[in-house]
Design goal:
Helix content: under 10%
Number of domains: 1
Shape: globular
Largest sheet: 7 strands, mixed
Number of strands: 11
Radius of gyration: 18 Å
């Protein structure tokens, strides 16, 4: 019982959370779960000063041409639960990819959900990271809610944390 209390208090005392609010000037999240075909700029703007601003880094972080692409074409067919992506540079297709059912979770409350996780074991850190991206398609842009969490240890000190950030990508 004593050990369980110590572990619980360690996680409680070493936990943190950061949350950005959706910038009001970006509009509301009036998206729905209908099929989508959208050509978007790969580089967007963030609600905070830190973090990644490339859509390819969020959706296809292992894609070969993710850093070269200047646009990304997204095609989502809700009824078939398919999420297809084309990476483009100078209007030429560089790479075609699809998200599988483990990553693409379908649509919930008007947003398409992409989720993934990984185990980290480097530099004294051991833990699990997870990400959930909710994509809301507006008439002139894509707004993404990025949620990231981690639980684990850093040099044997328990850590846990979450963050929420918003990103906006203009339609090309």
């Amino acid at each position: 019982m004593k050990l369980a209390t110590i572990v619980f208090l360690s996680f409680f005392l070493c936990a943190c959370a950061t949350k950005d609010d959706l910038p009001a000037e970006w509009g509301s999240l009036n998206s729905d779960c209908s099929d989508v075909i959208a050509l978007l700029d790969n580089i967007g703007i963030r609600s905070s000063q830190y973090g990644e601003s490339r859509l390819t880094e969020l959706l296809v972080p292992k894609a070969e041409f993710r850093h070269i692409a200047d646009q990304i074409n997204i095609s989502i067919i809700s009824s078939k639960n398919t999420f297809n992506i084309e990476l483009l540079a100078d209007s030429e297709v560089l790479e075609r990819l699809s998200l599988d059912a483990e990553e693409f979770k379908g649509c919930k409350d008007g947003g398409f959900i992409v989720a993934r996780s990984s185990i980290v074991n480097t530099g004294g850190a051991l833990g699990k990271e997870w990400w959930q991206f909710t994509l809301y398609f507006a008439p002139d842009s894509l707004i993404v809610s990025k949620k990231k969490g981690v639980v684990g240890t850093l040099f044997f000190v328990p850590i846990a944390g979450t963050e929420i950030q918003w990103l906006r990508f203009s339609k090309a």
